[in-house]
Design brief:
With 153 residues, the protein is mainly alpha-helical. It has a domain of 106 residues: lambda repressor-like DNA-binding domains (434 Repressor (Amino-terminal Domain)). 59% of the residues lie in helices and 4% in strands. Strand 1 and strand 2 form a beta hairpin. Helix 1 packs across helix 3. The chain is elongated, with a radius of gyration of 20 Å. The N terminus is likely disordered.
Length: 153
């Protein structure tokens, strides 16, 4: 599933739209046919916007999507949650997802407001590292915390 840049220039994943399109195509439905399964029916343009990530799935339409495509509601809701978290993380932390093949959304981490800038800077620099440097950073950070936390106990 690809990451997109919308008209506003915000980069983020379109996991929900790609999932809906995949399930619709597996069922052999056109966008128009899927739209007719909603109550009340929705337009082909609305379905197209969902699939392209232009329009997020409104809460009032979740049940219609689940029923029309015979989906597991929890699976759809989890995917919606992950996509929202990834987009929010991108905005807050300034992470750039372009060119990365992310299959799951990054975690949203809550820190004290006083520490926010510090952690944004760490995230920024961490995202600049290659895989081997990331592994080394994780190992050294884990080791440092383990040794310091043992001293505090």
């Amino acid at each position: 599933m690809e990451l997109k840049i919308n008209k506003k220039g915000i980069k983020g994943p379109n996991w929900v739209g790609a999932f809906i399109r995949q399930k619709r195509e597996e069922k052999g439905l056109s966008q128009k046919e899927l739209g007719q399964l909603f109550t009340p029916p929705v337009t082909t343009q609305f379905v197209s916007n969902l699939e392209r990530g232009v329009t997020p799935v409104p809460a009032t339409h979740v049940q219609a999507v689940v029923k029309a495509l015979n989906l597991n509601e929890q699976e759809l809701m989890l995917l919606m949650e992950k996509e929202y978290a990834a987009k929010l993380t991108s905005k807050i932390a300034g992470q750039n997802f372009e060119g990365q093949a992310l299959m799951s959304a990054p975690s949203v981490i809550v820190v004290a407001q006083a520490d926010e800038e510090f952690f944004k800077e760490i995230v920024h620099w961490y995202n600049q590292l290659g895989d081997s440097d990331r592994q080394m950073f994780r190992a050294q950070t884990k080791s440092w915390f383990e040794s310091h936390l043992k001293k505090a106990i």
